[in-house]
Amino acid sequence: MAGTRQFNEEEALDSAMLLFWRRGYGATSMQDLAEATGVLRGSLYNAYGDKQSIFLLAFARYRRNFMAQVRDTLEQPTVAEALRAYLDLSIRAMTLPEEERSGTRGCMSTKIAVDETARDEAIRTALRGLLDELAGLLEARFAAAPEEVALPPAAAARLLVTATRGMVVVERVYQDEGRLRETAESLATLLLPK
Prior knowledge:
CATH architecture of the domain at 59-191: Orthogonal Bundle
CATH topology of the domain at 59-191: Tetracycline Repressor, domain 2
Oligomer: single chain
Largest sheet: none
Radius of gyration: 18 Å
CATH class of the domain at 59-191: Mainly Alpha
Shape: elongated
Helix content: over 70%
């Protein structure tokens, strides 16, 4: 039947997501995507148009999955517990053993953000969307009990988003979980009132 995809789109986009996450945007070619998804390159072009379109769909999947994890993590009785759970989630994502992470490490959004070949406005808009949603979730959690946070909720959320994205970069350089945990504790100390 014309127009019917002859491949499992969910599986193909999951495979594409993992490939972009592992290799970055610029280092991933349409041929790489064809090999990773098991879908012929021509079929990928026919279904999605180009690499950027595939990336945006794959990144949307990553964003949904990541935000669901963050929402679950923030459902703690106190802001202190929610903050520490979020920091722990972030560090665990960066430091999972190879066999548990499908070749991925850290935050896909940060990896793409530092990729010089991923400067198109559509990609930047997708990255901003994830960061803004993340900040919104954190701000809402902090706003539910503002007396438990040493900064205004919006400022605390922006600081936390910025710091955890920076931690991804530091992890890539040092690969030292202890260093990350010390940084996380410093963040918690700054954000939680004495």
